[in-house]
Write a structure and sequence with these properties.
Elements (H helix, E strand, L loop, with lengths): L9 H6 L3 H10 L11 H8 L2 H9 L3 H12 L6 H9 L12 H18 L3 E2 L6 E2 L1 H7 L15 H4 L5 H10 L8 H13 L1 H9 L3 H10 L5 E3 L6 H8 L4 E2 L4 E3 L2 H7 L17 E4 L2 H25 L15 H11 L3 H13 L3 E3 L7 E3 L1 H7 L3 H14 L29 H13 L5 E3 L1 H11 L15 H16 L2 E2 L2 E2 L1 H8 L2 H8 L11 E2 L4 E4 L5 H10 L1 E4 L4 E4 L2 H9 L4 H11 L6 H13 L4 E3 L3 E4 L3 H9 L9 E4 L2 E4 L3 H10 L5 E2 L34 H19 L2 E2 L17 H14 L3 E6 L5 E12 L2 E6 L4 E6 L3 E7 L6
Parallel strand pairs: 16-20
Antiparallel strand pairs: 1-2, 3-5, 4-5, 6-9, 7-8, 10-11, 12-13, 13-15, 14-15, 16-17, 17-19, 18-19, 21-26, 22-23, 22-26, 23-24, 24-25
Helix pairs in contact: 2-32, 5-7, 5-8, 10-11, 13-14, 16-18, 16-20, 17-18, 20-25, 21-23, 22-23, 24-25, 27-29
Length: 819
């Protein structure tokens, strides 16, 4: 579909594109597809709406945006040479422009212009480049606001309300001939500012202080405040039109004068090339992989430790959602990490679907059933599960501790932590790291500079001028979280991460597996009631040891400490002293120390000697002396005990409090059931109902696939054919206006459709569906029977059946225009 004349509108420019180019537009701006436009005119209208244009501008890199900003301050339309001149300048060297900048801009400008054309922000031939009106309104200066380039309004815009007499005074002061036509006066003043020689002479006659004032305004903002009696330099500038009044106290440097002072450049520092990501260190790739693998294993263990600590029911959930500050501090202490890191691990477990609310009336966090399946996986598969969840998550733990728009604190696991830009930023940061040589650790500042160049407006409002750079903060958090998670090692991207990004979790797990030590089936028992695990332990051994001992220190080797409380915990879980002795003997590479054997036997001998039940509660013991000792102890006063029988005491507290109180007094009581059997309390088994991982909050509509793009382009083309086709109206029917539905009687409709089915010709019809939505279609009838017409619908690119009573009218096409 070629055009012999230049397009007059954006719709005409889009209509001249081929299908591949239209698909490129819809791929770059997927918001235009919801819903699919009925024709090219609707597509052009939607592409010019403010919300869509702002979204498109936010996806431009810095130089493409600078190109659009230069077009916004140029005349409309502008030739390519004018645009190039606004970016490179007029050749006058002001000491700030690099010698090679002009060549770099000339090389990069065609690509930037192609990007703007592809996204329908710019249209027209090189001789008449046009920026869409909405983008010009956003980026161009106005009498009230300066443009992003720092330029003010033109002379014509700034003098629109000025009196003819004042214009004559300015012309006389500038040495220009007087004219009684205001338009001619404005034109003459603008011509003076754009004439290099005459403008140079005018500035040479200016006082030095006046030039200093211009220096402060030339790169923006171009507005300044003046007093009723301005200083002589300001008065000279105002009299000669170099400062034009906007209000009684505000003046502005007109755009033409500013461009002369800038040597013709719209931007102080054009940036045609993306800043390079620089390295701070080049490390051995094997050392990087080893460090990342060690951190990956630590990440898996930390998440598991967190969820184990919440195994029997985690902390309560705030009424507004999330963890309280106190619970976050408690979690950080348990994990021995700072609070922001503890928030990251909790958010990671939540994003991976391993942690959720239990949904009870007294709502608490607890592991999900998916946690049990995850815990059974090999370490490398557990890591890929966490890393994949992190890459896709919109939850942003770096915001924890900050405030929302209403000044309320943002809490870990709270509802206000989703940021839709997070996944895209994480992938982009890792892509920049992947582009470096293996083992290269980048300078974070250069990474942030590159991210700002690629999306200078992302995270900031184009219209409001919001400078909050959320995108840069997420990029910095990504670098820190990557090191915590084992994505990077010693600052460089690990090999298994490259595989995760390129090939998927299976390939990443295969590369990570050899770097993770095999789980051990033994520990080293020490005489000081400790056990040393020289590496990761097999799951059954780790579970049993965590019940029998407390973790004292973590690192390359884990140190466990045996205490009376930890041994009693194992006995409460149903183990006997003989079971514990056998377990230690089977899994220790060193002999079982005598102090540890004595500790187990001593706790086991006293374990269950006292029995606790519900009366409110009672204590039962066959040894009267023990009960006498308890009653005589002053610490038992709070339990409010009294003797019921020689071997039984009653208490006024619940069984759990009685158990805890006697344990604090040094006894080892055991709870019993109503039948007198010892109650076994196993280490937590509380789980939430089945929960799915939280769904990331999408950032705008998803990018359509090739199938959807092809169908959408065909539908738009067919709809455009229906809307613009030349058609024959029925002889007795009034002519139809372009874009309106045809109107014919039922008999005329039936006759025309039957004739078209016999001749195989196409028709233009108006159709109203069951929901009452009207549309225009081009169809080729195949069969007419039973009140229905079966036809090939060029709009939908498929054969469909339409009830005749829903067709508002038909019209023959003047020519065969369906191809």
């Amino acid at each position: 579909m070629g055009m012999t004349t230049p397009p007059r509108t954006l719709a005409e420019a889009l209509r001249a594109r081929d299908d591949e180019s239209l698909a490129g537009l819809l791929r770059a701006r997927p918001d235009l597809l919801n819903p699919v436009p009925g024709d090219i005119t609707q597509l052009a209208t939607r592409a010019g709406t403010r919300a869509s244009v702002v979204r498109a501008l936010e996806h431009l890199d810095r130089f493409a945006l600078q190109t659009a900003e230069a077009l916004a301050v140029a005349a409309d339309p502008a030739p390519y040479e004018t645009l190039l001149g606004l970016l490179t300048g007029d050749g006058r060297d002001d000491g700030e422009h690099r010698d090679d900048a002009g060549a770099a801009i000339s090389d990069a400008l065609p690509g930037a212009l192609a990007t703007l054309r592809e996204q329908a922000l710019v249209w027209g031939e090189d001789e008449r480049l046009r920026l869409v009106r909405t983008a010009r309104e956003i980026l161009a200066p106005s009498p009230q606001h300066a443009s992003p380039t720092g330029l003010g309004p033109t002379v014509a815009e700034a003098t629109s309300g000025m009196s003819p007499g004042r214009l004559q005074e300015i012309l006389a002061a500038a040495g220009l001939p007087a004219t009684h036509d205001p338009v001619s006066a404005v034109t003459a003043l603008a011509a003076l500012f754009t004439d290099r020689a005459r403008m140079g002479e005018l500035l040479d006659s200016a006082p030095a202080e006046a030039l200093s004032v211009l220096d402060r305004l030339v790169w923006g903002p171009p507005y300044g405040e003046v007093t009723p009696n301005p200083t002589p330099p300001v008065k000279w500038l105002r009299d000669h039109g170099l400062l034009l009044p906007v209000s009684t106290r505000t003046v502005v440097l007109p755009r033409e004068a500013a461009l002369h002072l800038r040597a013709g450049r719209a931007h102080r520092v054009p940036e045609p090339r993306p800043p390079a990501v620089e390295a701070v260190a080049n490390r051995d790739p094997q050392a990087v992989d080893s460090a990342a693998a060690g951190q990956a294993l630590l990440a898996v263990n930390t998440v598991e430790e967190l969820l184990k600590s919440w195994n029997g029911g985690g902390p309560p959930i705030l009424r507004a959602g999330g963890l309280s500050v106190r619970e976050l501090k408690r979690t950080a202490t348990a994990l021995e990490v700072p609070e922001p890191v503890a928030a990251f691990w909790a958010e990671l477990a939540f994003a991976a679907g391993l942690l959720a609310s239990d949904g009870e009336a007294d709502e608490r966090y607890a592991p999900t059933p998916a946690y049990d399946d995850w815990a059974e996986l090999p370490a490398q598969d557990r890591w890929t599960h966490l890393a994949t969840a992190w890459l896709a998550a919109t939850r942003t733990s770096g915001l924890v501790g900050g405030q929302d728009a209403k000044g309320r604190a943002l809490s870990a696991l709270g509802p206000e932590l989703d940021r839709s830009a997070a996944p895209e930023v994480r992938h982009r940061v890792l892509a920049l790291l992947a582009a470096l040589e293996p083992g290269t650790a980048p300078d974070p500042e250069t990474v942030l500079a590159r991210m700002r160049w690629e999306r200078p407006l992302r995270g900031a409002s184009v219209s409001a001028g919001d400078t909050t750079d959320l995108r840069s903060r997420i990029a910095l958090w990504t670098l820190n979280e990557s090191e915590l998670l084992g994505i990077t090692g010693r600052g460089a991207l690990a090999t298994h991460t490259r595989a995760l990004l390129d090939a998927g979790p299976a390939e990443a797990a295969a590369l990570l597996a050899p770097l993770i030590p095999e789980p051990l089936d033994h520990v080293l028992l020490q005489a000081d009631l400790t056990a040393v695990a020289p590496g990761p332990l097999e799951r059954p051994l780790a579970d049993m040891l965590s019940a029998l001992a407390d973790i004292e220190s973590k690192g390359g080797a884990t140190v466990y400490r045996f205490t009376s409380g930890s041994v009693r915990r194992a006995l409460d879980a149903g183990q006997s002293a003989a079971d514990l002795h056998a377990f230690l003997a089977a899994h220790s590479r060193t002999p079982v120390p005598q102090p540890l054997s004595y500790l187990i036997d001593d706790v086991a001998r006293r374990h269950g000697h006292l029995r606790i039940g519900a009366a409110s509660s009672y204590v039962r013991c066959d040894d009267e002396a023990v009960l006498n000792e308890i009653l005589a102890d002053k610490r038992s006063v709070t339990l409010r005990l009294r003797r019921l029988a020689p071997t039984a005491l009653a208490a006024q507290v619940d069984p759990a409090s009685l158990l805890e109180g006697l344990r604090e007094m040094g006894y080892a009581p055991a709870a019993e059931s109503a039948e007198g059997d010892v109650l076994i309390t196993r280490a937590g088994a509380r789980r939430t109902p089945p929960r799915t991982a939280p769904v990331p909050v999408p950032e705008g509509p998803p990018v359509p696939d090739a199938t959807l793009l092809g169908a959408a382009v065909r539908a738009i083309r067919a709809g455009d054919t229906a809307a613009t086709v030349v058609r024959k109206d029925a002889p007795e029917a009034p002519a139809t206006a372009p874009g309106s539905l045809p109107r014919t009687t039922s008999a005329e409709t039936l006759a025309t459709v039957q004739a078209a089915a016999m001749t195989g010709s196409a028709l233009w019809i108006g159709y109203v569906n069951a929901d009452g939505a009207a549309s225009q279609r081009v169809i080729a009838p195949v069969r007419v029977e039973g009140g229905f017409v079966t036809a090939y619908d060029h709009t939908a690119d498929e054969v469909r059946t339409y009830p005749l009573h829903r067709i508002t009218g038909v019209a023959e096409l003047a020519d065969d225009q369906t191809t």
